[in-house]
Amino acid sequence: MSMDCIFCGIAAGEIPAKIVAQTANVVAFKDINPQAPLHVQVIPIRHIVDAAHLEVSDAAVLVEMTAVAKQVAEDAGLDPATRGYRLVMNVGPDSQSTVPHLHLHVLAGRSMTWPPG
Ligand code: AMP
Ligand code: ZN
Q1: Helix (H, G, I), strand (E, B) or coil at 113
Q2: Cystine design at 102: which of 15, 45, 48, 80 (Cβ 3.0–4.6 Å)?
């Protein structure tokens, strides 16, 4: 755990968040500033800075994150076969990344536009 990391604080239960799913290595919670009717952050409990810092040995946690994202969307009735969802990982300044703890945005519940801004 990184001492001054807000998402480590959420994963540890020290910072309040609306948790929507939890597995052995992953926590999912509602985004504080939602950009879609469903906007959830899926994070590894273990501190990883961002997708550029993933290593081959992190493969399992990454798959666990995508499985939790699918489960969260399905729980909201937005499963891949009918509505679907968008997964986003921002990396670095140009992406507008703001929280240096790996997180998978799950955005759903509206028709998305492309390209993203
Ligand atoms: P990014 O810009 O990709 O780093 O995304 C960070 C996301 O975390 C943004 O969508 C924020 O709204 C969200 N966020 C920041 N602080 C919190 C918090 N305390 N609880 C829930 N979501 C948060
Ligand atoms: Zn962290």
Answers
A1: coil
A2: 48
